[in-house]
Write a structure and sequence with these properties.
The structure holds two protein chains of two kinds. By secondary structure, chain A is mostly helical. Helix content of chain A is 83%, strand content 0%. In chain B, the strands form four sheets. A six-stranded mixed sheet of chain B has the order 6-7-8-3-9-10, with helices on both faces. In chain B, α5 runs parallel beside α7 and α13 runs antiparallel to α14. The chains are: A mainly alpha, B alpha/beta. At the A-B interface, α9 and α10 of A face α4 and α5 of B.
Chain lengths: 279, 399
C-alpha cells in the first residue's frame, strides 16, 4: 500500500522550518514583548504581600460583580490557595491567562468584526477557526518550541491560538444578531459603516462579545495548565510535577487551586456581560 | 399638483444572477418557472407610479406582495435590479454611496413596523440619532429632538428606554426620530401594524393631525384596507410584486380592478351588514315645503351647520334647497321655496348595501335615505360614509 504517501507532515514541517528561519525577527520581537509583559505583571502582583493582594482581588470581585457572594468566595478561595502554599504559581498562572486573553482579544475582536461585515472574510476565517478548535490542543505546543523555545512565551503562543476562536466567533455572532430592521433604520438615516458599527452593532453585541471573552479566559486557563508541559510553570507546573512524582495529594491541591481561579474569573466575567447567573 | 417621487419600470429580483433572471423574465418566462429553474425570486416586477407632493400614498397588499421591498427600493435599502426612481430631479437610482447617504440624511424619514428603536439608547438619544450622525452639535440636536418628542406627545418621557415604553409610545419615538430630521418625505413601513387596534386608530388619527400641519409627502405601507381607506389620499394595490390598481379610496371601492381587489374589498369592509341605514346620519333639521320660506330654511341650515337642506311636504320628501339658492331667493324677496327647490335628488332605501352608495354619491350633494312612503329617514354624505365603512369594518374585525 505504499504507492504514494501524500507528504502532509513534511510540508508542514518545511513550512514551520521556513518560518523559524526567516521570521525569527518577528518571533523574537513577540518573545521580548510577551516576556517583559509577563514579568511586569508578575512582579507587580508579587510586590504585594499575599494577604493584601487577596484583599485587592476580593474588592475587585465585589465592584465588578456587585455581588457579596462572589467577593466572599474570592476571599476564602484565595486564602485556601495561599494556605496550601500555592500562591506564587497561582499568581503566575493568572498573569499568563491575562496576557494570553489580552492578545487573543486584540487579534480576535477585529477578526470577529471583519468576519461579520464581510462575507469573503467570513468564508476564510470560519474554516480556520474550525481547524483551530478541533486540532488537539497539544499539537500547538510542538511548533511553539522551535518558535519561542521552552517556557512561558511558547505557552502563551499556544494558549492564544487555542483560546481565540470563541472571541472571534461570538463577536461575529453578536454583530450578526442585530435585527435587520435596526440595521435598516441606521442605514435609512444615512449612517456610514463606521457609525453603524460603533453606535449600533457593537453596543448591541456587547453581551455576546463578553460571553466570548469569558469563554476565551476559560479556555486560556485550561491551556495554560496543559502548556506546563513545555515549561510554562504556574499551577500547571505543580500538577505536572505531581504527576511525575506520583503525589496524588499535591496534584489535587493544585487542581483545586485551578478550579478556584476559574470560578472567580468566570463569575466576574458573567456579571460583566450583564447576564443573569444560570439557575 | 407637483410630482415628488416618480418610480419607473422598477424591478427587483432576488438571487445570485438577477440581471440574467431579468432578461428571462422579460422574455416571457413566468415567475414560478423562474423560481423553479434558476432559484430567482421576483420581488417587484415592472412597477411604475408617482407620489404627489404633500399627499399620503398608501401602498397596500398582502404579505409577500412586494410592498415592503418596494418602499425599501425607494431609499435603496434594497438595491433595485432595474428601473429608475426620481425624487424631484434627483435620480435616486444613479446616486453614488456618498450622495445617497446625504439624500437619506436630508430628505427621507423612515418609520418601521417593529419600531427598530435602539434598545441601548434612551428615547431622546434615539430621536437624536439622525442628527448625531450628521454631526449636528449637541445643544442644537437636543433641542430639535425635544421638539420632535413634544410633537408626538412624549414630553417627559425623553429619558426612558424603549423597553420601558408601551408599543404605541415606542412607535411615537420612532415617528419622532424620523420627524427630528425634518425630512420632506416619510417612508412608513407598516408603521402601525404591530399595535393593537385601539392604539392603531389613535396613531392613525394623530398622523392625520400631524399631516395637516406638516404637509409631508408620505408613502405608507399597509396590509389593511381600513387603514388605507382612512389614511390614503391615493392607494396603490399590489399583488405578486405588481401594481394591480391605483386610485382614490372611492375608485377602488366602487370599481375594483379585478377579482382579487374585489375580494379584498368585500372581505374587509363589506361585511354586507353595512347598509344605508347603518351609515346614515339622522336628518336633523328638515324644511317644510308648505310653511317654510327661504329665511326659515336658511335659519334651519345655520342651526344644523349644513349647506343644503331636504324639504318635505306632508311627510314626503320632495327635494333639496341649497344655502346659496336660499339666500339668493331671500334677496329677491321670495316667500316660499317653490322656485329654488331642486327635485332631482337621489333616494335610496335603508336596506341598500353601503358599497352601492358610492356609485350613487355625487360630488357635493348628499344622498337621502327614505322609507317606502318616501319619508326621510336619514342623510348620507361622502366623508361620513368612508368613515363609517372603515370603522364598521374594524368593529367587525374585532368581534
Amino acid at each position: 500500500m505504499d504507492l504514494f504517501r501524500i507528504p502532509v507532515g513534511r510540508v508542514i514541517e518545511l513550512g514551520l522550518d521556513l518560518i523559524t528561519e526567516h521570521l525569527s525577527f518577528a518571533t523574537k520581537a513577540f518573545s521580548g514583548i510577551t516576556e517583559s509583559g509577563i514579568r511586569i505583571l508578575v512582579d507587580a502582583m508579587m510586590f504585594f504581600p499575599p494577604w493584601a493582594l487577596i484583599a485587592i482581588f476580593s474588592v475587585l470581585a465585589w465592584t465588578l460583580s456587585r455581588k457579596k457572594s462572589v467577593a466572599l468566595f474570592t476571599l476564602m478561595g484565595f486564602f485556601l490557595i495561599w494556605n496550601m502554599g500555592l500562591w506564587s504559581p497561582t499568581v503566575s498562572t493568572i498573569a499568563l491567562v491575562l496576557i494570553a486573553t489580552l492578545i487573543a482579544m486584540i487579534i480576535g475582536l477585529p477578526m470577529g468584526i471583519l468576519a461579520a461585515l464581510s462575507r469573503g472574510a467570513y468564508r476564510v476565517i470560519m474554516p480556520i477557526l474550525d481547524v483551530m478548535q478541533t486540532l488537539p490542543a497539544f499539537v500547538y505546543l510542538i511548533p511553539a518550541i522551535p518558535f519561542f523555545g521552552l517556557g512561558a512565551v511558547g505557552a502563551i503562543f499556544a494558549t492564544v491560538i487555542f483560546s481565540m476562536p470563541p472571541a472571534i466567533r461570538l463577536t461575529c455572532l453578536g454583530i450578526k444578531q442585530v435585527p435587520v430592521e435596526m440595521i435598516d433604520a441606521a442605514d435609512a438615516f444615512g449612517s456610514t459603516t463606521a457609525q453603524k458599527l460603533f453606535k449600533l452593532q457593537l453596543p448591541m453585541a456587547t453581551p455576546t462579545i463578553m460571553a466570548g471573552i469569558n469563554q476565551t479566559i476559560m479556555l486560556a486557563l485550561s491551556m495554560v495548565v496543559i502548556a506546563a508541559m513545555i515549561g510554562a510553570g504556574g499551577l500547571g507546573g505543580e500538577v505536572w510535577k505531581a504527576i511525575q512524582r506520583l503525589e496524588a495529594g499535591r496534584g489535587f491541591e493544585a487542581g483545586i487551586a485551578i478550579v478556584i481561579v476559574a470560578m472567580v474569573l468566570d463569575r466576574i466575567m458573567q456579571r460583566l456581560g450583564g447576564k443573569k447567573e444560570p439557575v | 399638483m407637483k410630482e415628488k417621487i416618480v418610480v419607473k419600470d422598477l424591478y427587483k429580483i432576488f438571487g445570485p444572477r438577477p440581471k440574467h433572471a431579468l432578461t428571462m423574465l422579460k422574455s416571457g418566462v413566468s415567475k414560478d418557472e423562474l423560481m423553479e429553474k434558476t432559484g430567482h425570486g421576483v420581488g417587484i416586477a415592472d412597477v411604475s407610479f408617482h407620489v404627489n407632493e404633500g399627499e399620503i400614498l398608501v401602498v397596500m397588499g398582502l404579505s409577500g406582495s412586494g410592498k415592503s421591498t418596494l418602499v425599501r427600493c425607494i431609499n435603496r435599502l434594497i438595491e433595485p435590479t432595474a428601473g429608475k426612481i426620481f425624487l424631484e430631479d434627483i435620480e435616486i437610482t444613479a446616486l453614488t454611496k456618498k450622495e445617497l447617504r446625504e439624500v437619506r440624511q436630508r430628505r427621507f424619514g423612515m418609520v418601521f413596523q417593529h419600531f427598530a428603536l435602539f434598545p441601548h439608547r434612551s428615547a431622546l438619544k434615539n430621536v437624536e440619532y439622525g442628527l448625531e450622525i450628521q454631526k449636528v452639535d449637541l445643544a442644537q440636536r437636543r433641542e430639535k429632538a425635544m421638539q420632535a418628542l413634544e410633537q408626538v406627545g412624549l414630553k417627559g418621557w425623553e429619558n426612558s428606554y424603549p423597553s420601558q415604553l408601551s408599543g404605541g409610545m415606542q412607535q411615537r419615538v420612532g415617528l419622532a426620530r424620523a420627524l427630528a430630521l425634518d425630512p420632506d418625505i416619510m417612508l412608513m413601513d407598516e408603521a402601525f401594524s404591530a399595535l393593537d387596534p385601539l392604539i392603531r386608530r389613535d396613531m392613525q388619527d394623530e398622523l392625520l393631525t400631524l399631516q395637516d400641519k406638516m404637509h409631508k409627502t408620505i408613502i405608507f405601507i399597509s396590509h389593511d384596507l381600513d387603514e388605507a381607506l382612512k389614511l390614503g389620499d391615493r392607494i396603490v394595490l399590489m399583488m405578486d410584486g405588481m401594481i394591480i390598481q391605483e386610485g382614490t379610496a372611492e375608485e377602488i371601492l366602487a370599481h375594483p380592478a379585478n377579482e382579487y381587489v374585489q375580494k379584498f374589498v368585500e372581505d374587509v369592509n363589506l361585511s354586507k351588514v353595512l347598509t344605508a341605514e347603518t351609515v346614515m346620519k339622522k336628518p336633523g333639521e328638515v324644511a317644510s315645503y308648505a310653511y317654510d320660506g327661504p329665511k326659515a330654511a336658511l335659519w334651519k341650515m345655520k342651526q344644523a351647520g349644513i349647506s343644503s337642506i331636504f324639504v318635505q311636504h306632508k311627510n314626503k320628501l320632495v327635494g333639496i334647497v341649497s344655502a346659496d339658492d336660499a339666500s339668493e331667493a331671500l334677496k329677491k324677496g321670495e316667500m316660499n321655496l317653490k322656485n329654488i327647490i331642486n327635485t332631482d335628488i337621489t333616494k335610496v332605501l335603508p336596506a341598500t348595501p353601503a358599497l352601492e352608495l358610492f356609485t350613487l354619491l355625487g360630488e357635493n350633494s348628499p344622498l337621502a335615505v327614505v322609507d317606502e312612503d318616501d319619508r326621510l329617514k336619514g342623510v348620507i354624505i361622502r366623508g361620513a360614509l368612508l368613515a363609517a365603512l372603515s370603522e364598521g369594518a374594524q368593529n367587525n374585525g374585532s368581534v
